[in-house]
Amino acid sequence: MSFSHFPRQRIGDFTVIAISDGYLTASFDFLSNIDATDADNIQRAAGESNPSAVHINCYVVQGGGRTVLIDSGAGGIKQWGGHLNANLRHAGVAPEAIDTVLLTHAHPDHVGGLMTSSGQRAFPNAELAVNKSELAFWQDDANLARASERAQGNFRIARGVFDAYREQLRTFGAGEVLPGVRALSLPGHTEGHTGFLVESRDAGLLVWGDIVHFPHIQIQRPEVTIAFDQDASLAAATRSRLLDSVSADGVLIAGMHLGEAGFARIRRSKGEYGLAYETDA
């Protein structure tokens, strides 16, 4: 799944490029607060030919002498994605050139691409930066012990990545993580789920991580949650709050499951939110 064109935006002195890792498939049975038929109808009305497909985005931020990657896709884990490395090269970005990887959170479809199929670091020169609460959650043996069998597999994947990058691992809290990039706590989906606000010369972009998995559904119906949410009610509250603020302020957004267009704005009309994809700047 190689692309000849990669959506990009200029944010002041930064260039942000959306790089596809491919797709995963999630049954509508994973969704709560919506009937599967309604979910399918919303997807089809939005033009989605494969309604249960969830696109996986990663983002490269270039500027200030740095090449930063936000999330790494699934890397082929569970037959999900796996196209990041090839698409980076098609976009003219060598994996060796990436100096920092910022994680929104540590689910498999966000950390899977950090390792090669042979078990080596995919980004050998990169520092790995992760929210300290997120790291603590996945490293806690008590959390592992009470997790479901499926979730225990997620723990093993996350811990394997953290172990591989141990010498290059940095944790952060709220605030600036790199010059021009601030971490924003967006709790609910995971313990330390984090957005990144890229700002330069009065321009801004919010990379909001997994605020939505099915954007057409969950932006129209913010109360719809997914089984992957650690705290579903908190995730829904965070989504509603964020949709309200980014629509009011006209903030440009990027999201890991936003679709191949990569960038969008949220519009509010007659009390309902809608998605407007943004063309290249």
TrEMBL record:
Pfam families found in the cross-reference section: Lactamase_B (PF00753)
CDD domains: OPHC2-like_MBL-fold (cd07720)
Ranges where the Metallo-beta-lactamase domain occurs: 55-257
Keyword Acyltransferase annotated: no
Keywords of the record: Hydrolase, Metal-binding, Zinc
Molecular function GO labels: hydrolase activity; metal ion binding
PANTHER family noted in UniProt: QUORUM-QUENCHING LACTONASE YTNP-RELATED, QUORUM-QUENCHING LACTONASE YTNP-RELATED-RELATED
Family: Belongs to the metallo-beta-lactamase superfamily.
Protein name: MBL fold metallo-hydrolase
Originating organism: Pandoraea oxalativorans
